[in-house]
Amino acid sequence: MDTTPLRDANRALLNAAATVAESSDASPAPPAGEWNADQILAHVTLINAATITAISSAATGAITTYDNRTAQDAWTLDRVITLAGGNAGLRERIRIQADALCGLGGPMLSETELDTPVPALLLSNGKVVVDQLIPLRDIITGLAEVELPGHTRQLLALLPKDSGHQAMT
Predict the structure, then answer these.
(1) What pLDDT does residue 169 have?
(2) Model's pTM, two decimal places?
(3) Domain ranges (residues) in the chain
(4) What class does CATH assign to 4-163?
């Protein structure tokens, strides 16, 4: 499996996170009901960890599931922010996780392992978006094509309107 799109999506997310962190507005306020930059990054670290767990389980033949509810829990997000040491620590954690995901999700797994059906429960804004078996490869692809680009856009939306970065993805 080619993990270039996953590496590119992580790079774009980390670039957006650095841009937001370095913006003149040191703590951009999110729109009502949205996460701030640190919460977005904490969510991504939890999603990455769940994906690494699913990949590792498939490689060992262990039964696995993929459930993103913990990655949306406010208390858990705050705890991860604290444990990582804030924004810079979260970005470093994501960088290291990206290296692991690209190493594990591509060359390490066989086609059979990538086709492993994984029971998945995925929520977004409190609504179920997926509740079915998903091949492991689709979880990895979804991370690269949907999850990370969506959070990249979410981060860039935190920038002041006159920053010139709103259209970047």
Answers:
(1) 44
(2) 0.91
(3) 4-163
(4) mainly alpha
